[in-house]
Design goal:
Layout (H helix, E strand, L loop, with lengths): L3 E6 L6 H7 L6 E3 L3 E2 L14 E2 L2 H9 L3 E7 L2 E6 H9 L3 E5 L2 H10 L4 E6 L3 H11 L4 H14 L8 E4 L3 H16 L6 H9 L10
Helix pairs in contact: 1-7, 5-6
């Protein structure tokens, strides 16, 4: 069965990271690994956490259209390498890319077959509660994240699916269900169709 690319987006606090970590390995998931020009932090491993590359290598990949999307953050560059996605899909894997909306739409332009899933809490109040409960950011940052969440709402129509993350188990089940359904689409199973159409059988007639 052919592999595919699944992109999961949503506001900070929507639970994207938790959902991605809990997706069923039995379905053949492979979490996308980004390239970055920043130095590895303690405990990080090349080709597991990131592909750590030089700025010159990043510029070359960008010029050769080898990145599905890219952005700069705190004087470092990040991007999604096409080679890794293509390699995993060729193995029949479900490549999961957790990324913000702008990057997701960039990838969709270059990779039209990608399946876009938008994850969000049931209400803005719940999103605020989750951000406050994390106790990792000040009030100004939380307000900015809530404002950004509202700015993303009009872009949901450009996604293929919307999953409400009220209960984490149900959200994970829904994403898994989306993947199962997408893998059953005929255009993702052309090898099976060709094998069926090209096979020959010996017709036997029975006397009734």
């Amino acid at each position: 069965m052919d592999g595919m690319l699944v992109i999961i987006s949503g506001p900070s606090g929507s639970g994207k990271g938790t959902v991605v970590k809990r997706l069923g390995p039995q379905l053949g998931y492979a979490v996308s690994i980004s390239v970055t020009t920043r130095k590895p932090r303690e405990g990080e491993v090349h080709a597991r956490d990131y592909f750590f590359i030089t700025e010159e290598e990043f510029v070359r990949m960008r010029s050769e259209n080898a990145l599905l999307e890219h952005f700069a953050y705190v004087n470092n560059y990040y991007g999604t390498p096409r080679f890794y996605v293509d390699e995993q899909i060729a193995k029949g894997k479900i490549v999961v890319l957790e990324i913000e909306v702008t990057g997701a739409l960039q990838v969709k332009e270059k990779f039209p077959e990608a399946v876009l899933v938008f994850l969000m809490p049931p209400t803005l109040t719940e999103l605020q509660h989750r951000l406050v409960s994390r106790a990792t950011e000040d009030a100004v940052t939380i307000e900015a994240r809530l404002k950004r969440a509202l700015e993303e709402i009009p872009l949901i129509d450009r996604y293929d699916y919307l999953v409400i993350n009220d209960k984490i188990d149900e959200a994970v089940d829904n994403v898994n269900a989306i993947v199962v359904a997408e893998r059953l689409r005929p255009h993702r199973n052309q090898a099976v169709v060709r094998d069926f159409a090209g096979s020959q059988v010996k017709m036997e007639y029975y006397q009734l």
